[in-house]
Write a structure and sequence with these properties.
heterodimer; A: 213 residues; alpha+beta; 2 domains; 7-stranded mixed β-sheet; 8 helices; 7 strands; B: 552 residues; two-stranded antiparallel sheet; 23 helices; 11 strands; 43% helix
């Protein structure tokens, strides 16, 4: 292989699948790792780089109890297995649909994003994933980094918070206030589309004669 | 009197009948085969073809470009011809040099593109192509026939018909890589184009243009050798030449790795058969079309040669069964096609029955051709596992769709005798003996029946009302099979319902099914895991396709 080859998405996926399997993941999880690497690459994030780092990271097994997601020991959580479990539990009481979810110490948290995005799309919700200074919104097939762009690819283990809101909730858009100056400026412009009234137009606009007849 | 119409669905063969290796290994190409679908589109849309580049020396070394011009886009086969010493010629994937190498370019290549491809395409796996290319492939000469044809044409004579029939092609491809391999464009990048949405349309186009190249090359070499005495190849002889293909085990895991795609191929074909069987009457035109197709099939079966003992038996069955179909004829009763089919199910071998599927579809283009639009698959959409389903509901699904697997005994050595793996040498899939060879610890997840049985055993004791997510967290080793089981609910024809680890399993059965969907003829096993076939034999060339009657 030459230096810095441009990999197609299917090569990305195939390499990730084999590498994940080679690193000891079960086949079904290796498929998920490959999916995640491809998804992140499609979002122009370094999916293969994150996966390569994750596959050699020492991580602890996940345990879920009373909505508390943490490793069974002091090691950080593996973002692939945690992301997969998050997808599986998404619509269940242990998942983030009913209340915000806190995950303790996840290595390479960006690897959670493909799984949360897929599950959120299936559940028809918008998901927000937050860690460190980073705040990511996932809606449909899209990803929007709202804050902390540089922290998206964080390597060190992070506490992660996942919340959801209904995807077509009008409140998402309607709940913001509008300053009086904006209202004034736009209303003045909108007013330019109106035709000034005349006696003729007033007469023709309604039924002739009295409505009290 | 016209009988009442009956919904086609009641004539559909169930997966447990269709998805068996013995039957899949008797599959015949049909009018839904991918190369037929491509040629029909070119006819309907009036595609044009040219050869903008032909830079070839007297030894037949150089490059050429064959262009297919569709209503919206063009595609160009870039061909590099080499002077290959005999001792380097190998059809195996371990080869490093070939008689000719190709890439299918997306559009019309510039000279700079050709130079870039010239530096990479001849290297095949060792080179890199780009998102401007859709496939990478290579071909080797059929040495005997190639020389015979060049020599005869150079001398002003036509080649022997018998020699041509015995081989059937001037060159055979030994690999056609598409879908993002070696840097090529991803399928996702082209799947929204109507002409490439169907399965393997890129590969079919590449091979079809390769066929035109092989004929141009022998005619070029004949002129170089014979000068003014040389003649062109007779059009009828040319027509009977296809492109050969030499294929090993590599194709087999594909069908197991892509269950939703396999389902869509099978379901399209089965729906087509059901629609024909559901016809209350047979028109005179359909009866005549059926007879024409049967005559062609009988001729094809006579010309179809193989040295492999299994295939020789199947060919004998096929020839006898085609004769019996001709003798039986199409009944005059209501639902005549169904009558013929039901007779065949009890009277013919699997080889004859599956040949009849193709024959029944042939005169019913108006009824079945639209199904070719249902043969691609959105695999990403079927990928996610549903962890919220209860263990009880999942277990029911497993028992319903994998009853065939749960009934197998996976404890005897002969039932788990094989394992599939990827060889470190050239990374090709191979089949090993579990008890006689090393490497079973690295086996590929191909043993679907055993995996289903192990999943069923692991589920024992888990409460029915619990969500599957908890089981998956505890048992990640079963996630692969859980995904397949969940996919099977919407894709009932996605799983081969046989033990793929069994000692008696024949990989060539899997190859035959896949190659029949490509449209391959003259399936000729060279071992239980290696075959030669021909593509496009008897079908039109680029300079003929739009001048012929529509394939309806």
């Amino acid at each position: 292989m030459r230096e810095n080859p441009i990999l197609s998405l299917s090569e990305t996926e195939a390499l990730a699948l084999k590498a994940a399997r080679g690193a000891g993941l079960d086949w079904g999880l290796a498929e998920e790792a490959a999916f995640a690497a491809r998804w992140l690459t499609e979002q122009r994030l370094d999916g293969l780089g994150l996966l390569a780092a994750q596959l050699v990271q020492d991580t602890g097994p996940l345990t879920i109890s009373d909505r508390c997601w943490r490793a069974q020991d002091a090691r950080p959580l593996n973002a692939i297995t945690t992301g997969v479990a998050l997808g599986d539990h998404f619509a269940l009481p242990d998942g983030p649909l009913t209340a915000p979810l806190a995950l303790s110490s996840v290595a390479f948290p960006a690897l959670l994003l493909p799984f949360v995005a897929t599950a959120a799309a299936r559940a028809n919700v918008v998901a927000r994933v937050e860690w460190q200074a980073c705040h990511v919104m996932l809606a449909g097939a899209g990803i929007l980094v709202l804050e902390g762009h540089e922290a998206v690819l964080a390597a060190a283990a992070q506490d992660v918070r996942v919340t959801t809101t209904p995807r077509y909730d009008a409140r998402l858009f309607a709940a913001r206030t509008t300053p009086p100056a904006t209202m004034q400026d736009l209303t003045a412009l909108a007013h330019k589309t109106y035709v000034p009234a005349s006696d003729q137009s007033r007469r023709d606009a309604g039924a002739e004669g009295s409505d009290n007849a | 009197m016209i009988p009442d119409p009956v919904p086609a669905s009641i004539f559909r063969r169930p997966p447990e009948q269709v998805m068996r290796l013995a039957r899949m290994g008797s599959a015949h190409p049909t009018r839904l085969s991918f190369l037929r679908v491509m040629l029909r589109r070119m006819q309907t849309e009036g595609w044009r073809f040219d050869r903008p580049v032909w830079e070839m020396d007297a030894k037949g070394v150089g490059r050429a470009v064959y262009r297919a011009i569709g209503p919206e886009r063009s595609y160009s086969l870039v061909a590099f011809a080499h002077d290959l010493p005999h001792h380097l010629r190998s059809d195996r994937v371990i080869a490093t040099a070939w008689d000719a190498t190709f890439a299918l370019f997306d559009g019309t290549p510039t000279t700079a593109d050709l130079d870039r491809l010239h530096a990479n395409v001849p290297l095949q796996e060792a080179g890199r192509i780009s998102g401007s290319e859709l496939s990478l492939s290579r071909a080797n000469r059929s040495v005997r026939l190639f020389s015979h044809v060049v020599d005869r044409l150079a001398a002003g004579q036509q080649p022997d018909r018998a020699e041509i029939d015995a081989v059937g092609y001037l060159m055979r491809t030994t690999a056609v890589y598409g879908s993002g391999k070696f840097g090529a464009a991803d399928r996702a990048a082209i799947a929204d184009r109507p002409e490439l949405r169907g399965p393997f349309q890129v590969e079919m186009l590449s091979v079809w243009l390769t066929r035109a190249f092989t004929v141009d090359l022998v005619e070029h070499l004949a002129v170089a050798k014979g000068g003014a005495a040389a003649v062109r190849l007779d059009r009828d002889l040319r027509r009977s030449l296809g492109v050969g293909n030499s294929t090993g085990l590599g194709l087999a895991p594909f069908l197991i790795r892509h269950p939703t795609l396999l389902n869509n191929w099978m379901m399209a074909r089965e729906e087509a058969l059901a629609r024909v069987r559901a016809q209350p009457l047979a028109s005179a035109r359909a009866r005549s079309g059926f007879r024409t197709a049967l005559d062609a099939a009988r001729l094809n079966a006579e010309n179809w040669q193989s040295e492999h003992p299994v295939q020789r038996t199947k060919l004998a069955d096929l020839r006898a069964d085609l004769a019996r179909i001709a003798e039986h004829g199409v009944p005059d009763d209501a639902y005549p096609w169904n009558g013929l089919w039901l007779w065949a199910e009890t009277s013919l071998s699997l080889e004859g029955q599956e040949a009849l599927v193709a024959l029944l579809l042939e005169p019913h283009g108006d009824l079945v051709d639209g199904l070719s639009g249902c043969m691609d698959a959105d695999e990403a959409a079927a990928f996610a596992v549903d962890g919220a389903v209860t263990i009880g509901a999942f277990r029911q699904m497993l028992e319903r769709h994998y009853a065939w697997a749960l009934a197998q005994d996976h404890s005897t050595p002969e039932n788990i005798a094989r394992f599939w793996y990827v060889s470190a040498e050239k990374l090709e899939p191979r089949l090993g003996g579990r008890f006689t060879e090393d490497g079973a610890a690295l086996e590929l997840p191909i043993g679907t029946s055993r995996m289903a049985a192990e999943l069923s055993a692991a589920l024992a004791g888990w409460p029915e009302d619990q969500p599957l997510a908890g089981f998956l967290l505890a048992h990640p080793e079963h996630r692969f099979m859980v995904r397949r089981v969940q996919q099977s609910a919407a894709h009932p024809y996605g799983e081969i319902q046989d033990n793929l680890l069994a000692a008696g399993m024949l990989p060539i059965d899997i190859l035959r099914c896949k190659l029949a969907f490509f449209g391959a003829s003259h399936f000729d096993p060279r071992s239980d895991r290696w075959v030669r076939i021909a593509l496009f034999q008897g079908l039109p060339y680029p300079d003929e396709v739009t001048k012929e009657p529509q394939d309806a």
